[in-house]
From TrEMBL:
InterPro entries: Wbp11/ELF5/Saf1_N. Pfam families: Wbp11. One of its GO terms (biological process) is RNA processing. Residues 1-165, 190-217 are annotated as: Disordered. Residues 12-36, 45-84, 94-111, 197-217 have a biased composition (Basic and acidic residues). This is Wbp11/ELF5/Saf1 N-terminal domain-containing protein. Residues 2-78 form the Wbp11/ELF5/Saf1 N-terminal domain.
């Protein structure tokens, strides 16, 4: 038995095909708009420069690949501008700074680097200050004749030398009073009896004096 067609699945497939077709159309429009913003005259100028070099001498493999890529880009730009019609941006005639200085290396630049013509047409505010010119850099190590001047080492600060410590040595002998030092270690009782013998303090009886003399005082 043949399976009956599922209307829900069929509608889902149809919607998916529409979404894919819509996505492809959107991508094509974005690509055409991006290519249409590129200046075909600039690309043609780069092609002419490479062909002029090719007439003088054989091109390097890298330059040959660049020439082929530029020719493909030019055809794609023309198709994109034809698809855009009146919506394609118009470029001023004559060379701009980018046309003069770009050269072959400009072929490797990104498409997003080019300024939109609508953006370039926006006037700057009146109170915008003019650009400040850059001053040429002057190397301070170059002399008037253009020769490099040897770098002078900075002078060392005059730091006074630290003063040497002055030590005074004396050779004079130190005299000690041993008798005076010995009295410091005499017991108090002995010192009291010595004073009594010398007559200091209270008066002693003759018997007490004889007793102290026998004791060695």
């Amino acid at each position: 038995k043949e399976k009956s067609a599922n209307p829900v699945a069929a509608q889902r497939k149809a919607d998916k095909r529409k979404e894919i077709a819509k996505s492809k159309k959107s991508q094509l429009e974005q690509r055409n708009e991006k290519l249409g913003r590129r200046n075909p005259a600039r690309v043609q100028k780069q092609i002419d420069e490479l062909k002029e070099l090719e007439r003088r001498a054989p091109l390097r493999p890298k330059d040959k690949d660049t020439l082929a890529q530029l020719e493909r880009d030019l055809r794609a730009i023309q198709r994109a501008r034809d698809a855009l019609g009146d919506a394609a941006p118009q470029f001023a005639s004559g060379e701009r700074r980018g046309d003069r200085d770009g050269g072959v290396d400009e072929a490797h630049s990104s498409d997003g680097d080019e300024t939109d013509p609508d953006v370039r047409a926006i006037p700057m505010p009146r109170d915008t200050p003019p650009p400040i010119p850059r001053r040429p850099f002057k190397d301070p190590q170059l002399g008037p004749d253009g020769q490099r001047v040897p770098h002078a080492l900075p002078t060392k600060p005059n730091v006074p030398a630290p003063a040497a410590p002055q030590l005074v040595y004396s050779s004079a002998p130190q005299l000690r009073d041993l008798k005076k030092e010995a009295t410091k270690f005499v017991p108090a009782a002995v010192r009291q009896k010595q004073k009594q013998v010398k007559g200091e303090g209270r008066l002693l009886e003759p018997e007490e004096i004889d007793k102290l003399e026998r004791a060695g005082y």
